[in-house]
């Protein structure tokens, strides 16, 4: 029986199960199938194979379903062959910084020192673009230690202009970015100003090391281990001059040096994960009725132990610096209960909170109540990693993690030295590879954000991007601004000397900058 004799609704169901090559072949057989593939096939494929990407949001809304699938297909091929454009997003800053990134579908914000650098996403000639919007200086001459330690966007009705900013001097402010129109400058951007509001929900007892947001909720962790869980309605200011009265927060004290946090309100049982230094550096706390459990539900170990009982005091001291959700297309499924973590020993470990075969029960004993394991509980479930990733040529600590990339199956890790970013395809974990950032600084990569076709990163000297998208054009990237253009707003912090080591030869019409890369199974650079 000819395929075209089937009812249209049956044909549409068949199209949803086909691959890209199958859809392309089918669309060339006859006009009926061509129209069905064009109208339903490509849209179904795009829906069933998501490629999350903030920076492509504007462009994808203008693209047809066929163009979206074509872009994803060519991007996946570029990932497979490790072909990409490497570009700095700015010239070298005036001083060495410890920057961090925040992203929405509208803009990328780079927080470095006392400055916020904003890059807006757009669409030029049907191609996704990145433009420098401006920089604001949050310095306060009456306050010492004003360096930004963490930043995240707050839900403000898709305006994407409200940020929560934490400082080393133990303050937290809400910063609202306000574009200045009619002040367009090709090199300095159209201009930005801002409005700041002190937030009282975070007492001045310690500085916030990390923020994480999920479904209108906010999680923070301070350097001494104080964790707070808030509903964002109590964070976003209700007026231009005052904060809303803070909603009651769920607070727990980990009593350990803490580095990062991860909030997941999408899981069947919402949870908060924390990365600390100690014998149990990766713990997971369940969330119910907008409150965190006082004791961890899971303790995630660095390796599998054969014994059925574990003394937590006998574990080695380690640290976890990065936590993220595993890629959507990893072999373990798209569940938010699959976590990837970056450790001090240079390994990326993936855990499945749904796992049963690797569960062990920690025995109840007085020895487990020592300060080093005070955040642990004898009733917690012990889990070991289901997959461990490592660049055998780099034992450096993993500072930051992000997931996405080609086929939504990759993990990107920023390492502690030589501006190296490592990538793994979780479907073929042995075929990992690493690349240096433009400039090949000795710096760590302090933060990375991995999308379908782009990876944003930042070192102590500058932000950068790897772009795996097809047909890149020079006007899709920001103009590299000379240092003198931003000197008025990017002076180094008081007491820190000027730092102008470029490390890159900037050329006006250069599309990509040379970077060294190597595979983890190789014996040298390529």
TrEMBL record:
UniProt biased composition (Low complexity): 360-379
Region (Disordered): 359-379
Pfam families in alphabetical order: F-box-like
Keyword Transferase found: no
Protein name: F-box domain-containing protein
Signal peptide (UniProt feature, chain positions): 1-26
F-box domain boundaries: 1-48
Domain of life: Eukaryota
InterPro entries: F-box-like_dom_sf, F-box_dom, WD40_repeat_dom_sf
Swiss-Prot/TrEMBL keywords: Signal
Keyword Signal recorded: yes
